[in-house]
Amino acid sequence: MEVFRRYFVVILLSIIIAIVWGGVLIFSKESFSTLNPNAETYTKPLSPKFDEEILDAVSERIQNGFAIQPSSFFEMTKD
C-alpha cells in the first residue's frame, strides 16, 4: 500500500495523459479525414492511351532547340 501512495500522483497523471492523448487522436482523425470531392479528377489520366506523336514532337523540339544535346551527358561517363 505504501508503494501505491508513493506513486499515486504519477499513475493518476499517466492515466489522464493517456485519456487526453486518445481523445486528441480520435478528434483529429474525424476532423481531418475528409476526402476532396475532386480527388478522382486529379488521379484520372488525361488520356487513356499513350500518345507517341506528342512524345516524338517533344523529342524533336529538344533536338532542334538545345545547343548541347541531352544525350551527350550520358556519353561523358568513362567506362
Mean pLDDT: 81
Counting DSSP H or I runs of 4 or more residues, the number of helices is 5
- Tell me the series of helices and strands, N- to C-terminal: HHHHH
* Poorly predicted residue ranges: none
User: Which percent range fits the helix content?
Assistant: 55-70%
Describe the main β-sheet briefly.
Answer: none
Spatial extent as radius of gyration: 31 Å
Strand content: under 5%
Q: Ends: how far apart?
A: 77 Å
| Overall 3D shape | elongated
Structural class: mainly alpha
Number of strands: 0
Descriptive overview:
With 79 residues, the protein is mostly helical. Helices cover 66% and strands 0% of the residues. It has helices at residues 2-6, 8-31, 39-43, 52-65, 71-74. The longest helix has 24 residues, at 8-31. The model has no long low-confidence stretch (mean pLDDT 81).
In short:
The chain is mainly alpha-helical. The chain contains 5 helices and no strands.
Topology (elements, then pairings):
Elements: H1 2-6, H2 8-31, H3 39-43, H4 52-65, H5 71-74
Structure characteristics:
79 residues; mainly alpha; 5 helices; 66% helix
